From TrEMBL, chains A, B:
UniProt cross-references to Gene3D superfamilies, sorted A to Z: Winged helix-like DNA-binding domain superfamily/Winged helix DNA-binding domain (1.10.10.10)
Record-annotated Transcription regulator PadR N-terminal domain positions: 17-88
Pfam entry (one): PadR
Organism annotation: Nocardioides caricicola
Name assigned to this protein: PadR family transcriptional regulator
InterPro entries the record matches: Metal_resp_DNA-bind_regulator, Tscrpt_reg_PadR_N, WH-like_DNA-bd_sf, WH_DNA-bd_sf
PANTHER family xref list: PADR-FAMILY TRANSCRIPTIONAL REGULATOR, TRANSCRIPTIONAL REGULATOR RV3488
Lineage: Bacteria, Bacillati, Actinomycetota, Actinomycetes, Propionibacteriales
Length: 109, 109
DNA sequence: GGCCACTATTCAGTGTCACTATCTACCGGT
DNA sequence: ACCGGTAGATAGTGACACTGAATAGTGGCC
């Protein structure tokens, strides 16, 4: 990724992953593949795993180890109540930022 | 600011300031006041000054020292051609990110 | 004449985050 | 036995916004 995008993702990537988990439980490798599909072609796998560990330690997700037919067991993450609350806050903050930016883009005031 | 917003601002605040300078030349204290008016109530002054020094060193802005009627001289920053190009790139990246986020928010796919 | 408020900038130290690079581990096919 | 795909962990790095304090000029008030 360009450095600009890397910096922009700080704080946002966390929200993106939580938003994905709000739709359905998922595991790291799956999330990485999904992101690549959606155009985030260069997000390193290591980044996602580190992020998942972080949100687990903060108590936003519940974790379950599930055996895989292929390869080692998966760690499936499920968003819990605390995580949902944090995601709500994320969307509020994102909206605030996005609105200001949009105003700025169109000549502003 | 909440920590969430602090992280989201990384990379974005730079774009915000460049966007302001795209509208008109400005100096640090002025930009800080403007941001506070626009709802970024808790952005520290020190943050803006550090950012201005950074974009100056990268060559995105031209600087002129202008005496002030009140207080010490101002450092007035003007966006130059390089800065404008960088700002264009910022808007492209921002659009990309904002679109993905918007898709995610509405149930996604 | 000393103090305070406002204007204006600088700087050292801190925490957080995404990235890089590398490592472990399990499976199937050849 | 080897390799490619699946799945996860981790130490070290760089960039950025924040904290908190310092510096410095001007004007008004008592």
């Amino acid at each position: 990724m360009g450095k600009q995008v890397t910096e922009m993702l700080k704080g946002t990537l966390e929200g993106i992953v939580l938003a994905i988990l709000a739709g359905r439980p998922a595991y790291g490798y799956e999330i990485t593949s999904w992101l690549r599909d959606k155009g985030f072609t260069e997000i390193a796998e290591g980044t996602i795993y580190a992020l998942l560990i972080r949100i687990e330690q903060r108590g936003y997700v519940d974790v379950e180890k599930v055996p895989s037919e292929k390869g080692p067991p998966r760690k499936v993450y499920t968003l819990n109540a605390q995580g949902r609350a944090y995601l709500d806050e994320f969307w509020r903050n994102w909206s605030f930022l996005a609105e200001r930016l949009e105003q700025l883009r169109k000549g502003d005031g």
